[in-house]
Amino acid sequence: MKKLSFLFLIAAVFAACQNKETTATTGSNADTTKYPYTIKDPKEWEMNTDPANLLLAMNTVKAFENLDTAALKAFIGDSIHLVVDSYEFKGLKADFLKTAQGEMDKYKSITISLQDRESVISKDKSEEWVSLWYKQVSELKDGKKDSVNFFNDLRIKNGKVIMWSEYMQHPMAK
């Protein structure tokens, strides 16, 4: 009986290891879920495997970490739309860099620890975005230190950042 059980076990393992052919499904693969909201013009995003946008976004944030508007200048489009917490800027690169320099002048140091990133492109190739999640530890020139988690969305067009949305996780009130 042990031999028969052993042979049956070997046969079962062998059968389980065999590749099974997948059959093509017929019909539509369209999502039929009933969502509570509809999107007028969904972009249908896919991962962007070209590392150029990811590198551009990371270098943009790195330039801010280094408090370096000269480096930042190379990554920004001729005009930019910036949304940071309760502040919004929409204008030319030169004006943005002047504003950025004024902000950077407040800091003694910034250290960023990247936690995750994602680069996407719309299926119709009309929009490209990079999302970055990171922790920022900063020290102001007046000695105040802070640690905040950030989520950044950077829209890329023609190899330049044209929109930068930054969301921060504020510490809870004590």
UniProtKB/TrEMBL annotation:
Keywords from the named record: Signal
Organism domain of life: Bacteria
Signal peptide: 1-19
Protein name: SnoaL-like domain-containing protein
Organism of this sequence: Pedobacter frigiditerrae
